[in-house]
Design brief:
mainly beta, four-stranded antiparallel sheet
C-alpha cells in the first residue's frame, strides 16, 4: 500500500520558533537499510553493557545529507557524558563511536521515537510486499509545534492480507507528552488543524483499483469526535465545520468525488466539560 505522508494545507500560517538541540550519540551499530538495522538491533537484544539501552535512529534527523540507520544509546547533552557511555559500551561493542548530532526539530529523534518499531525485526523474510517505506516510522510536523508520528509496525496475524503491515498515529507535543489517536490508520496523512482541533485521513477500504478513505476528527483534548467514511482531504472551514471529498466508485471503476460538509458538535456534560461529540447530518446536498 502506498503511504501518503504529505500534509494537507493548513489554516494556521506560522509555526512557533523551535531551536535545534545539540546532543551526542553513542552509535553501537549502523546499516544503510532499515531491514538490516532491524536485524542488527534484534541481535543486540536492546540492552548494551552497563545496562544502557539503545534505540534505532536515522542520521537524517541530525541533518545529514546521506541517511544511514543506526542503533544508539540515549542522547547525551554533553560530549563528556557520551565519552563515559562509550567506554562502557566498548566492553561489548568494540567499534562503537560517538556522533555529534544537531537534532532537527519535530523529528523522530527530537521526540525520542525510534525510527523502527521493535516489531519490525520480526517481519518474515518471506514477506514479499514489504518495502523500506513500510518499515520506517514518520514524523509529520504540524504548524503549531505539535507533530503527528506515524509508527509503522508489524502485526503477527496468520493469513493477514496486508502481511502484518500496520500504522499507528500518535500526536506528540514533546518527548513526554504524547497520545495515540488511532492504532491502525493505513496511509495516514492530509492532516489539518484549526487551533487545537485536528482532522486527518486513513485509507480504510479498496474498491477495485481505488483506495477509499475515512476522515477522523479530534477535539483540542485529542478525543475522537467523528469518523467520516468514504471521504478524503479534510479542510476546516469553521470552528466545528469540516469539508472533505466524498468518495464513490462508479460502474466503470472510476473514482468520483463530491464535496461533503461535516459539522461536528462537541457534546457537553451538565458541568460544562466536553465529552465525545457527534457528526451532525450533512446539509450540503
Amino acid at each position: 500500500m502506498i503511504h501518503s505522508v504529505l500534509l494537507g494545507a493548513f489554516l494556521i500560517a506560522a509555526s512557533p520558533e523551535i531551536r535545534t538541540e545539540r546532543v551526542w550519540l553513542v552509535i553501537v551499530a549502523s546499516d544503510p537499510t532499515p531491514a538490516g538495522i532491524a536485524h542488527k538491533g534484534k541481535a543486540l537484544g536492546g540492552a548494551i553493557a552497563g545496562g544502557l539501552n539503545a534505540f534505532s535512529i536515522q542520521t537524517r534527523d541530525c541533518g545529514d545529507k546521506k541517511n544511514v540507520f543506526g542503533w544508539a544509546t540515549e542522547p547525551s547533552p554533553c560530549a563528556e557524558h557520551a565519552q563515559e557511555q562509550l567506554a562502557t559500551v566498548r566492553a561489548t561493542v568494540k567499534d562503537a563511536y560517538v556522533k555529534r548530532c544537531d537534532v532537527r526539530p519535530q523529528t523522530l529523534l527530537a521526540l525520542r521515537f525510534p525510527v523502527l518499531d521493535p516489531s519490525i525485526a520480526n517481519v518474515p523474510e518471506s514477506a514479499v510486499n514489504w518495502g523500506d517505506e513500510d518499515r520506517i516510522s514518520s514524523a509529520l510536523p504540524l504548524p503549531d509545534g505539535r507533530t503527528l508520528v506515524v509508527v509503522r509496525y508489524f502485526a503477527n496475524i496468520p493469513n493477514d492480507p496486508l502481511e502484518g503491515r500496520r500504522e499507528r498515529v500518535i500526536l506528540a507535543e514533546s518527548p513526554d507528552r504524547r497520545k495515540v489517536l488511532e492504532d491502525d490508520c493505513p496511509s495516514a496523512g492530509a492532516a489539518v488543524v484549526r487551533g487545537r482541533p485536528l482532522a486527518l485521513q486513513c485509507a480504510r477500504e479498496q474498491a477495485g483499483d481505488q483506495l477509499l478513505h475515512s476522515v477522523l476528527i479530534f477535539d483540542s483534548e485529542r478525543r475522537k469526535l467523528a469518523e467520516v467514511p468514504h471521504c478524503r482531504k479534510p479542510r476546516w472551514i469553521g470552528d466545528w465545520l469540516v469539508t472533505c471529498e466524498e468518495e464513490s466508485v462508479g460502474p466503470d471503476g472510476q473514482l468520483q468525488l463530491r464535496t461533503k460538509r461535516v459539522e461536528v458538535a462537541p457534546a457537553t456534560k451538565p458541568n460544562g466539560k466536553a465529552i465525545k461529540g457527534q457528526a451532525l447530518p450533512d446539509t450540503s446536498k
